[in-house]
């Protein structure tokens, strides 16, 4: 059974007793899915139900106070807002497993890179409400740059709910699905290029005689300065259209 992370049951919502309306995605990092801390004020740990195939994975959630299970179907039966955070090649098997218990009440969110909304909808019941999210590494420190897209049956209320919760991890914008894969290169993989550039800046300073720790701190702060709103489009560096 593949891993899926989902929210747990709680007070009534939309007239459905036992369905909890809030959730929080612990992490998008499939290699280290427990690195992202919970955001204070958004969702409490006891309101999260996590599913994974092994206790090794679930132990991290238990340490945070989350509820856990080895059954993906159990989560669907107890939750209405569901995140699927699996490797892309694993996701079809997970969806096939849970499809029999998906209802019109569920909101299903995929974090799997490259898996289109049409593919998700083909693997789920015809009226399933599906959304895609593309996060990036800085979500770990609540400075992420995320985009999201909704499927045919997901409305503005579902998009607003998801966007509101994800903004606890940084910036989240709704985009056409075509922009989701572009985001993977721009901001997902882009983090690695920025880090490589920062490293190169620091190494240049070190070769000129600056202490390593100081060089890396200055390089990091320089990039941070350039990312501030006042520097994102300075008139002397960009030609305005």
UniProtKB/TrEMBL annotation:
Which species is the source of this protein?
A: Ursus maritimus
Q: Tell me which residues make up the Pyrroline-5-carboxylate reductase catalytic N-terminal domain.
A: 46-114
**Which key words tag this protein in UniProt?**
Oxidoreductase
Gene Ontology molecular function terms on file: pyrroline-5-carboxylate reductase activity
Does the entry feature the keyword Oxidoreductase, yes or no?
yes
What biological process terms from GO does the record include?
L-proline biosynthetic process
UniProt similarity note: Belongs to the pyrroline-5-carboxylate reductase family.
Gene3D superfamilies associated with the record: NAD(P)-binding Rossmann-like Domain, ProC C-terminal domain-like
Name the chain's protein.
Pyrroline-5-carboxylate reductase 3
**Domain Pyrroline-5-carboxylate reductase dimerisation span(s) in chain numbering:** 177-225
Gene name in the database record: PYCR3
Q: Which domain of life is it from?
A: Eukaryota
